[in-house]
Amino acid sequence: MVLTFFFLVNQTGKPVKISVLADGQELFTREVPAQVPPSLRWEAPPPPPYPTIELKVPLKKGTQQLEVQELLYVGMRKTFAIQGFSQVHAGFRITVRSEGIFLTQDYYPAR
What we know:
mainly beta; Immunoglobulin-like; four-stranded mixed β-sheet; four-stranded antiparallel β-sheet; 1 helix; 8 strands; 4% helix
């Protein structure tokens, strides 16, 4: 197992529920609100402009595919082949927009 960061971003303006499967097995399911909570708007450093959640999830070495599903909004789905991800060390950024789900392996957490 490799601890892997996932950064979930909701740009739809509506609440979303994101489910991620790794090789057909559920990895996690999380709800992301529609807006950044007002209490977070005045913190320093300022929060991102869209609601986000950062997770650290154990992912099996040798995982071949991630499937991301949005369960509340429109039921969107995206599949991503991840062969060789363990050498990259980058986490996954999952962005949900009204036009679809975008998944990239380019996320490094702020330290």
